[in-house]
Amino acid sequence: MISERDCIKLIQRFASRIKSDYLVKGIGDDCAVITKDETNHQLLTTDTLVEGVHFNLKWHTPYLLGRKSAAVNLSDIAAMGGQPLACLLSVAFPEGVPSWFEDFMTGFSKVLKEHDTLLVGGDTVKGHRDIVITVTVIGEADKKNICYRSGAQPGDMVWVSGPLGNAAAGLSLCQKGLCNLSDPADKWQQLVKAHLDPVPLISLGKVLAESGIVKAMMDISDGLATDLAHLCTAGGVGAEIEQGLLPVSENLEQAAAELMTDAIEWIIKGGEDYELLFTAKSSDELKLRQHVAELTGREIYSIGRIIEGQGVFLCSKNERREISYQGYDHFHG
Amino acid sequence: MISERDCIKLIQRFASRIKSDYLVKGIGDDCAVITKDETNHQLLTTDTLVEGVHFNLKWHTPYLLGRKSAAVNLSDIAAMGGQPLACLLSVAFPEGVPSWFEDFMTGFSKVLKEHDTLLVGGDTVKGHRDIVITVTVIGEADKKNICYRSGAQPGDMVWVSGPLGNAAAGLSLCQKGLCNLSDPADKWQQLVKAHLDPVPLISLGKVLAESGIVKAMMDISDGLATDLAHLCTAGGVGAEIEQGLLPVSENLEQAAAELMTDAIEWIIKGGEDYELLFTAKSSDELKLRQHVAELTGREIYSIGRIIEGQGVFLCSKNERREISYQGYDHFHG
């Protein structure tokens, strides 16, 4: 067995053997970036969802699974500040194409349409035992605006675009049979929806990238602790997060109490929130807040700061503990 | 269950709902084609290989599996006359990344290098039960040269680039434990190699596309009967194939005899040969042959002609029988 980190190194070794002006950024960011023309770069991302690992048809309706399959890939384009343009879909079914695939396609294409993205290629192949969904998205961005993971500097503020831990809580609720998405009054609605139907923050990503203020950006797919550690490693810096500043949904604590879990675990380790994580100079705090509010009507949340050195630390009144890479683990999560 | 053909129609329905100048050719060809700039189009293709369906690690060494995973995707770029440029790889492993993945990556990147293609993105995800390999390739071609599946006209000659049925024979030999790739003198070497280590015909595809003579082109991945039926359907035509003209490797008949199979089944139904299938005016026969011989040193083989109407027919001395869509079936093959 090869550890996940060694595996990425292995792939990077093969990827970096060939150099080219064509390739701006290879493996190690939310998207690969290649030269398109004098003004624009192209963004490329691909992701695989496996039944029983990344989704469970017991609680994920085909329509919402279609939506999520598109959304999580579009989120990688959002994370660099790009506009998605085209999408390829490949699905492996073990026993022929099930009739629910039409609902899946309805959800899938609806999310693409919401973000002006075209489905340009699609195919189904024979699977063996698992349903496997692979989506590739091609996007574009003005090359001077693209936000990479690297670029954070000591003194920068660390920001997130919205509440954390909702998707992890929603997954737990689904696993316990406590989700009822068809009842709009259900108190877990927001948490369950975060897991089943995440929203790719394309407009916000573009606004942040075009602001000229954001220094580093990525989306939170593997949990704050792991993804902020990625961002810090890419920039050769560390980070301190203030526990009291972390944005949390109203009923997250209540769900944690009912499920006898510690909410902070969901908040820092829970994956799949697909919120944006970014940094900007402290002196730009007000400017950034206003810029985002004016153009999107959204609030954004400063949660800590970039420091010299390495490691991600969670600070509360009495404690400062390292939480680097403690999030979702692809192989042992 | 939805049949494979209905499924493609379903995907096409969702794909074609949105129209755009950006999208030149969507689902239904070897690659999706999108506008890059005034001169060039971009070619996009993705394909998924599932353990136990598309490959078997009992006889496929990781190094050769890596080579094949790259090659079958590059072949889709060859089929339209393009140059592959960039590649994304996504692999799902059920129980962590095995140590043989390094050999896989060696083979994978070697084929990319042979065709001047960069690995720009790669990731492994947790699988459930099956190993699943998904590859996406981005290529480019001068828009005036791109060869589509459509474009064949009654009277055109039908051509193939090389012997058919080798890969199907090679697979049968592997399944019976009769392959010995480490012995260069092994009599089944050529057949087994066709299955384990197919060659994407990038240079030939470009020469054919740039000739200005070829009217329609695709690669043979699902077998001659099925793929020629695809080409005919795309052009609104039919085809007649002369059994006596089909190019066959020296020892294919011998392998068929030893395995008590009819060689013609492999030749017309066997998938994965990755030879090119193309049409051109009868009057261009000599010109095309000479052009290809001069630029590539290769022989090409005329195997029949395009006719009015529909259906693919195999003609021998005594018989004319329809063979449309009788090849490899993704779900029941």
Provide structural commentary:
Two copies of one chain form a homodimer. Chain A is an alpha+beta fold and 333 residues long. Chain A has two domains: 4-142, PurM-like, N-terminal domain (60s Ribosomal Protein L30, Chain: A), CATH 3.30.1330; 157-322, PurM-like C-terminal domain (Phosphoribosyl-aminoimidazole Synthetase, Chain A, domain 2). Chain A is 32% helix and 25% strand. Chain A is built from ten helices and 13 strands. In chain A, the strands form two sheets. Chain A has a seven-stranded mixed sheet with strand order 8-10-7-11-9-12-13. In chain A, strands 1-2-3-6-4-5 form a six-stranded mixed sheet, with helices on one face. In chain A, a hairpin with a 4-residue loop joins strand 2 and strand 3 (40-50).
Itemize the secondary structure elements and their pairings:
2 copies of one chain form a homodimer.
Chain A (H helix, E strand, L loop, with lengths): L3 H12 L7 E3 L6 E4 L4 E11 L11 H17 L4 E11 L7 H14 L3 E9 L5 E11 L14 E4 L5 H10 L13 H8 L5 H9 L3 E6 L4 H12 L2 E5 L9 H7 L4 H7 L6 E5 L4 H12 L4 E7 L3 E5 L4 E3 L11
Parallel strand pairs in A: 4-5, 9-12
Antiparallel strand pairs in A: 1-2, 2-3, 3-6, 4-6, 7-10, 7-11, 8-10, 9-11, 12-13
Keywords:
333 residues, alpha+beta, 60s Ribosomal Protein L30, Chain: A, Phosphoribosyl-aminoimidazole Synthetase, Chain A, domain 2, 6-stranded mixed beta sheet, 32% helix, disordered C terminus
Rounded mean pLDDT score of chain A: 92
Largest interface: A-B, 72 and 72 residues
Structural classification of chain A: alpha+beta
The best one-word shape of chain A is globular
Q: How would you write the strand order of the largest sheet of chain A?
A: 8-10-7-11-9-12-13
- Give the count of structural domains of chain A: 2
Percentage of residues in DSSP E strands of chain A = 25-35%
Q: Determine Rg of chain A (CA atoms, Å).
A: 19 Å
Regions with little confidence, pLDDT below 50 for 5+ residues of chain A: 329-333
Discrete helix count of chain A: 10
Q: What oligomeric state is this?
A: homodimer
| Beta strand count of chain A | 13
Fraction of residues in helix of chain A? 25-40%
H-E order of chain A: HEEEHEHEEEHHHEHEHHEHEEE
Query: If classified by CATH, what would the architecture of the largest domain in chain A be?
Result: Alpha-Beta Complex
CATH first level of the largest domain in chain A: Alpha Beta
**Main sheet characteristics of chain A:** 7 strands, mixed
Could you name the CATH homologous superfamily of the largest domain in chain A?
PurM-like C-terminal domain
